[in-house]
Amino acid sequence: MGNFEPKIVAFCCNWCSYAGADLAGTSRIQYSPNIRVIRVMCSGRVNPLFVIKALSIGADGVLVLGCHPGDCHYIEGNYKTMRRIPLLQKMLKQLGIEEERVRLEWVSASEGAKFAEVTNGFTESVRKLGPNSLGHSKQSSKEAKHG
Amino acid sequence: MHMENEKRIGVYICHCGLNIAGTVDVEEVAKYAATLPHVVIARDYRYICSDPGQELIKNDIKELKLNRVVVASCSPRMHEHTFRKACLAAGLNPYLYEHVNIREHCSWVHADKKQATEKAKDLIRAAVQRVYYHEPLEVKEIPVNPNTLVVGGGIAGIEAALKIANSGRKVYLVEKEPSIGGHMIQLDTTFPTLDCSECIMTPKMSEVGHHSNIELLAYSEVEEVSGSVGNFKVKVKKKARYVDESKCIGCGICEQKCPWKVPSEFEVGLGQRKAIYIPFAQAIPNIATVDKDHCVYIQSGGKKCGACIKACEAGAVNFDQTDQVVELEVGAIILATGYDLFDASWIPQYGYGKYDNVITALEFERMTCAAGPTLGKIQLKDGKTPQSVAIIHCVGSRDKNYCEYCSRICCMYALKHAHHLRDKINAAVYQMYIDMRCTGDSYEEFYNRVSEEGVVFIKGKVAEVTDRAKTEEEEGKLIVIAENTLLGKVMRIPVDMVILCPAMVARSDAAEIARKFSITQKATGFFLERHAKLEPQVSAMDGVFLAGCCQFPKDIPDSVSHGRAAAAAALELIDRGSVAAEAAIACVDEALCHGCGICEEICEFQAPKVIVKDGRMVSMVNEALCKGCGACAVACPSGAMSIKHFTRDEISTMIKELAAEKND
Predict the structure, then answer these.
(1) In chain A, residues 61-100 whose CB comes closer than 8 Å to chain B
(2) Do the beta carbons of residue B433 and residue B450 sit within 8 Å?
């Protein structure tokens, strides 16, 4: 697995984390190219099933990034995420999937450097975990609707 | 030629000069995009945001009968709006557009061309799949309330309020202190012209006080903000002054009779005020305020004192007064909440708070002011006139331990203070600076003028201010120790007085204000603008604008310009009269909904409501209230709730494209 390049999907809320990623860009802060960002309006839109879907079809890790607690554009969307993701991690563990494959972080619009740091750190930790066995099995690529 | 429902997608890849094309092989990406399902045309172009670039898209929409458009360029926060407008101009619903960020999220953050190109392809493939599911959405216009709320009555807030009020629109100006005026009214003179700050500020304050379109809510604070652009509801707490505003004539007799003295905030502790007070002579509104923490009548529960009640002939003093909450409805909000000064005692080696004659520049400002506590006399604590003064620049500014940024005004007011010291008392003046930054109109000329007045400039950061004398000459003096970096020599300069120039920092309650108004702070604590260069007066929250130093340190001319810019932005919104409502909002599939009401519970905005329809319970979304966050769609157990434009199909298909093994 020397050449293993993890596939990372990141859900970023529009107001803080996506803007933070933009700031990393404007500041030309380099980070690992393994990440693919999906923009949602709020981290509260991230259905845990989206995360499961990503893992089940080939993602080696999923990042969920939202506004810092108290800073949510929609008042408390990130608090919902804060409760959902740890539950999801518990469940993943029971299913035999490393909970470290999912990480929830708060990145504000002014934290371009943090966005890069989180991305690099997460990519490295997933690299250490190795490929996600669930996502790389053949039969998992067809899936049902969820959302 | 093609079927009615056929999806015909156009994909446009922007070079952005070399910003994208330098790292992403745009031609290869365009070739790849052309192979994706339903893509009719894929082009790369130097600058798609340019007029010819937009024309290209418009023409293709018409000639190739495109019904979906994808542009891969910069951040959607920059140009999504531009291309949605271009689609609309060509007759395509703007929600049939999808934006891909291959600049901020790709070419600018990755150096490897191959990897960046692969990433760009992935992102575009996902967008092409997603745009397939886009549905046209109806954009509803909602009327804008024509009133504006301005928070903060310093020079920036005052300018903004006056400009809007003069255009004929109503303004509510909320100020937390008993009077408007902010920091500017505390200044003695202003650089580089040396004109009197009060003289130019008080006419503006007075205009605010008398303006028929301005309702001034002084000694008040915003408690709560709800609603959104065009229609905000704001709760303002009018703190009890214990003085009837309609009766008080500002004569000040209560103040004379009040026996209780308190350090004056306006005089930065150099002078005193009473427990009932008017903060300064030109206060607007010119109304007395009782400081309840220091009023003996209040503290004793009405058993002691009461001197002001007896003294007031107008019968204005009223200790039964309580805090009042006023509800305002406004279309636009301007935040002009200003700045705090860095607490110089945080750098203990400079001796502020330890040595009597180490003072801040604002304290010195009050000292030189003819109306100040010393009536303009520059003096040491013991009343003597200083023979020598050191002015230390960058106290907290340009210092990685405190504030990395430059506070921008200190070099200039330090020069102003040096001028007054030379001019009024002929003291020896030492400017201890890192770099002289005099970048405004006539600022460099002022620097030259002061240089010629016999001021000594020592380039170097001060290490310490001490009273430990090493020589006879240093005895009884404050010794400023600094390395003169031009001479490469450590110097000990004995002086009588040290003036510190503290950094301008974000207000201590900036985080709380940011939360109330749903805006964001920068790493420095100042409020984040939407675009640092092009929209410095606009916050990330629609309808909330920024003015003055709450965004970043500014001098007076810049604060004035910024205040007026914020006013123009607010007026632009108000005079347009209506604003597009969020179209990407929740909707219910009534066939799937069984009316459990979980959506009702989870929504922060009371948008979904379970009703009885055709004999069964179903959820209904109030479109005016829904903000489109998507919390309900996640919580809905039956999958009936969805968010337009962010549907499960749209997100799932992106996940599939970005997570799935390639060559599947």
Answers:
(1) 70-71, 73-77, 80, 84
(2) no
